Structures are given as C-alpha cells and as structure tokens.
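Quick review question:
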C-alpha cells in the first residue's frame, strides 16, 4: 500500500502586530435606575371603556374549557 500522507504543519499563532486593529466604539450604557426617565410612554393609560360598561369584581364565572377530541370538529363529524 501507499505510504501515509503526513498532515500539513499547523499554522503558527499570529504574533504581536500581525492582525488588524480596529477601533470599536462601545454604545453608551445607561443605568437601569434611570430607565423610567428615558421612556416616552405615558405612565397613566387612557381608559377606552367607560367604567359603567365594565363588569365589576365577581360578576362573571370563568370556566375551564372542556376536553375536545383531536379528530372531532365542531360539527361533531370525524375529520378524514
């Protein structure tokens, strides 16, 4: 059989000054404590529904949805 091919020599590590230096300017960071003052969103939301039209506490009964077969549709017919 043919002799094994020797692996290529490893590339040397770049020396000082062998790579290109770039000046990346970092984005200015702001402290989190000042985040509320940076926002332009209003603190108080405008109510779109008058309070007379909204239900009061305890005026409805939430219910858990019942289980439904994956193969059944709303017309109670099997999906083929």
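Suggested answer, residue by residue:
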């Amino acid at each position: 059989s043919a002799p094994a091919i020797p692996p290529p020599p490893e590339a040397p590590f770049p020396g000082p000054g062998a790579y290109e230096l770039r000046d990346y300017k970092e984005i200015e960071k702001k402290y989190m404590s000042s985040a509320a003052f940076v926002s332009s969103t209003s603190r108080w939301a405008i109510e779109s529904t008058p309070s007379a039209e909204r239900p009061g506490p305890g005026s409805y009964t939430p219910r858990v949805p019942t289980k439904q077969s994956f193969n059944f549709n709303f017309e109670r017919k099997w999906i083929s």
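Why it works: The mean pLDDT is 73. DSSP finds one helix and no strands in the chain.
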